[in-house]
């Protein structure tokens, strides 16, 4: 007559229980393929906007996997930065987000829509949908080396660049005007300028000391013809 469990039997039961518990907590919450693609597209865009690793970022989708990668294309990517996930897809595609602007070629993959400004959604949207949203931020590409002893001139006011240097970039705030560089002499300079027409309805010319051409010019109505970071044609709110 068996009186109870042996120590070995008890240890085996405990071991099986622990293994099952480990398995239960080892698998993350199951996500649909389109959710994974959506998440990685957003990560690629954020990395590109931030200029992370001084590179563009992209996403490659195949029938069996999706890969977040660093580089101008999947073929020329740096494989050391790959993030790969297995999915079930009947579509293939590749999306590259431009460094700093986040712009990309519009398209659709697994019911995830990407417009030319890099905006990602589960709902198809016209590429001009952003024309009335946040048109006050402007990117200006500047194609010469700038000396930090030069001055930024706002109409007749002068500001010495080296006095407004922060983390190897310009950060100049004057009243409600913000002038920053997203990259300074690397190899060229990208100016980020924020000026709200609702506050500033007067002309303004921004240029560097010694230059014949201005960086950006605002009209009497506070508008500019420069391409915005978010839209192709300026339309003020």
Question: How would you describe this structure to a colleague?
Answer:
There is one protein chain. The N and C termini lie far apart (88 Å). Helices cover 16% and strands 32% of the residues. The chain is built from 2 helices and 16 strands. It has helices spanning 7-26, 33-49, and strands at 57-61, 65-70, 78-86, 93-97, 107-109, 112-114, 120-121, 137-142, 151-154, 157-160, 165-166, 169-174, 177-183, 189-194, 204-208, 216-218. Strand 2 (65-70) and strand 3 (78-86) form a beta hairpin. The chain is of the alpha+beta class and 237 residues long. The protein is elongated and about 100 Å long. It folds into 2 domains: 33-121, no CATH class; 137-218, no CATH class. The strands form 4 sheets. A 5-stranded antiparallel β-sheet has the order 8-14-13-12-11, with no helix packed on it.
- Computed structural class: alpha+beta
Number of helices: 2
What is the overall pLDDT average? 78
Strand order of the largest sheet: 8-14-13-12-11
The tally of strands reads 16
- Count of discrete structural domains: 2
In summary, what is this structure?
The protein has 237 residues and is of the alpha+beta class. Helices cover 16% and strands 32% of the residues.
């Amino acid at each position: 007559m068996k009186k109870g469990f042996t120590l070995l039997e008890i240890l085996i039961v405990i071991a099986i229980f622990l293994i099952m518990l480990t398995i239960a907590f080892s698998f993350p919450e199951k996500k649909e393929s389109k959710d994974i693609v959506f998440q990685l597209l957003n990560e690629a865009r954020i990395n590109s906007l931030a200029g992370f690793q001084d590179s563009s970022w992209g996403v490659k989708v195949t029938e069996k996997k999706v890969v977040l990668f660093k580089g101008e294309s999947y073929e020329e990517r740096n494989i050391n930065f790959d993030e790969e996930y297995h999915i079930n897809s009947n579509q293939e595609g590749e999306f590259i987000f431009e460094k700093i602007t986040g712009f990309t070629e519009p398209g659709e993959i697994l019911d995830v829509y990407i417009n030319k400004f890099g905006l990602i959604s589960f709902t198809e949207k016209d590429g001009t949908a952003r024309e009335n949203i946040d048109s006050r931020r402007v990117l200006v590409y500047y194609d010469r080396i700038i000396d930090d002893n030069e001055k930024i001139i706002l109409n007749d006011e002068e500001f010495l660049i080296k006095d407004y240097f922060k983390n190897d970039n310009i950060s100049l705030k004057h009243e409600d005007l913000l002038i920053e560089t997203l990259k300074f002499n690397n190899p060229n300079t990208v100016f980020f300028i924020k000026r709200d027409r609702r506050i500033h309805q007067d002309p303004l010319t921004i240029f560097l000391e010694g230059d014949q051409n201005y960086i950006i010019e605002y009209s009497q109505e506070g508008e500019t013809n420069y391409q915005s970071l978010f839209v192709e044609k300026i339309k003020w709110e």
